Amino acid sequence: MKERNLSRERGSLNSISIFLSVIAIGVIIGGLFFNSTSDDNTKSPYSLNHNTGKVFFSPPELPDTLNFAGEPVPLQDFDVKEALDREMLVNTYFHSQTLLFIKKAPRYFNVIEPILKEQGVPDDFKYLALAESSFFDRAVSPAGAVGIWQFMKPTARDYGLEVNNEVDERYNLVKATQAACKYLKHNYEKYGSWTMVAAAYNAGRTGVARQIVRQKNHNYYDLLLGEETGRYVYRILALKLILSDPENYGFKVPKDEIYPIIPTYNVTIDGPVDDFADFAREHGVNYKILKYFNPWLRETTLSNPSGKTYVIRLPEKGYRTFHWDQEMNKAEQDSISDQDE
Asked: In the predicted model, what is the mean pLDDT of the chain?
């Protein structure tokens, strides 16, 4: 009886797989038709031979030169080029994830970029944050690393972040980015290379230092590292290439499909909060939205016995129907008004 049921289940799964495969092929062919008839300059990793009906998949083109944080990537070395090629293939053909990155990245870059600039950290490290967490605010690794910058609890506290049952600033994008900058600059003092700093962010200072001593080499591209760290910088480079020029790698996302940067304002508190659901309602939002903009608040209350000052971000009125095109229209109207004056 169990075997018969298993056979039925397998048969159902096979039918579903075939159905999904047919849909996927239809989507690809439809996309090919669209691309073949479109007059834009968007490159596509697919091509269709109209005579034979065969679909061809092409690898993404690698640039002749590339750098990370101003440091050259030795693409003339076959092992380096092939390692980058692997990550480019993975990320250009993992369509759903890469499309999501393209859509949501501007919302996070809007916060991260000015902090990196202010702290003197190269702009390319915004792609490290993406590689770390996929810009999932509540990301938690199996090892217990948390947030966009994936801080472990001891390291977070070492770099000034508050971590307790009520408040966990690893989830606070602004404060976590500031702490990450301190950590990155500290490592730069040690290694003198931003590329090695990126590798150490993944493997940890001890892990990288051990390999430097064992292999008598300080160059990331010449070190034999573990699978994850050995691919880490290349993944960051792939994300940099794709997100810097999505259309060059076959991704076309309309501007009104990019996740909008929601206008917010700050509310400062320096005492306890008995109930954040009530607090949210008093400020015209619900608890879900309060937590969306402030994931660092870990409980529904805040005791705050020391009277510490906290800044809570809340969305401006009309936030739930705010779209990117509205922001652009407002900017255009402001520009027209300025010209009229």
From this structure: 85
Contacts of 228 by beta carbon, 8 Å cutoff, 6+ apart? 202, 203
Which pLDDT tens digit goes with each residue over 25-45? 444 444 444 444 444 555 666
Q: Which among 172, 132, 164, 161 has a CA at the least distance from the CA of 149?
A: 132
pTM over 0.85: no
What are the sequence ranges of the domains in the chain?
Answer: 23-58, 67-256, 260-340
Whether the Cβ atoms of residue 247 and residue 41 lie closer than 8 Å to each other? yes
State the Cα torsion 38-44-50-54 to the nearest 10°: -150
Q: Is the pLDDT of residue 325 over 60?
A: no
Rounded distance between C-alpha atoms, residue 212 and residue 235, angstroms: 21
| Contact between 278 and 231 (Cβ < 8 Å) | no
Cα–Cα dist 147/151, whole Å: 7
Assigned CATH for 67-256: 1.10.530.10
Helix (H) or strand (E) holding 100: helix 95-119
Q: Residue 137 phi/psi, 5° resolution?
A: -55, -35
Which pLDDT does position 45 carry in this prediction?
60
> Taking a C-beta distance cutoff of 8 angstroms, is the pair 168, 146 a contact?
yes
